Backbone:
């Protein structure tokens, strides 16, 4: 499972509140990713990181920010949660010469009321 | 731009039936292609991959061949089991950048009945 954990695994919050999701890896991988999974859309990339303090936007980054102050932790923050951010969030790491193979964490199910 | 299109689901089969899940892609250059599987309540797992044209990826009885001429990467299995019930995602990794960003299809749910 490439040593990836996500916390919390489930969260219910209210519209307008800030939320932070944590992804932790134990194998020193350089690249980490945050995706969201929604019915009919598959997985869509929110943000990714290619090293400590190095991050970039993905396909659906609006309303999300990320931080990576240590190799092992990649945080996803919803500054002011909205109901459209109700989703399942997956963290992933990649490896390989072209970073082409990814392993995924178990996911965080977020409900914004 | 890059995109992946999968056949609509759900797909319902009887045990030991033949499975095909269609996947076509749009991409510039020579992307790498993947199939991921998601069992109920779990994260995605890599099922198989192919990194160049005519490569065949295989794992656990599943196969897919990278067909550049038809821009396809269809998933097949000769005899499905109840334990294969899951959601299957086709994905591509674009040629350029080496950033590992994946572009996923919408997923196809497979239900296998005993």
Residues:
């Amino acid at each position: 499972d490439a040593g990836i954990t996500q916390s919390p695994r489930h969260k219910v919050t209210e519209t307008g509140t800030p939320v932070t999701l944590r992804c932790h890896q134990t194998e020193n991988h350089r690249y980490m990713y945050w995706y969201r999974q929604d019915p009919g859309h598959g997985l869509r990339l929110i943000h990714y990181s290619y090293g400590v303090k190095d991050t970039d936007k993905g396909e659906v980054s609006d309303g999300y920010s990320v931080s990576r102050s240590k190799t092992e932790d990649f945080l996803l923050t919803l500054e002011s949660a909205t109901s459209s951010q109700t989703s399942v969030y997956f963290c992933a790491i990649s490896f390989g010469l072209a970073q082409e193979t990814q392993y995924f964490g178990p996911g965080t199910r977020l409900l914004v009321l | 731009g890059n995109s992946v299109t999968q056949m609509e689901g759900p797909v319902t089969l009887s045990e030991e039936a033949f499975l095909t899940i269609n996947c076509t892609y749009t991409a510039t250059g020579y992307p790498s292609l993947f199939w991921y599987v998601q069992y109920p309540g779990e994260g995605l797992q890599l099922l198989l991959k192919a990194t160049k044209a005519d490569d065949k990826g295989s794992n656990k009885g599943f196969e897919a061949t990278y067909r550049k001429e038809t821009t396809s990467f269809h998933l097949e299995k000769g005899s499905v089991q109840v334990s294969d019930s899951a959601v299957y995602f086709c994905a591509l990794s674009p040629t350029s950048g080496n950033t590992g960003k994946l572009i996923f299809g919408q997923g196809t749910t497979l239900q296998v009945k005993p």
About this structure: Chain A touches chain B through 27 residues (CB under 8 Å). The first strand of chain A starts at residue 4 and ends at 7. Residues 31 and 50 of chain A are 5 Å apart (CA to CA). DSSP finds no helices and eleven strands in chain A.
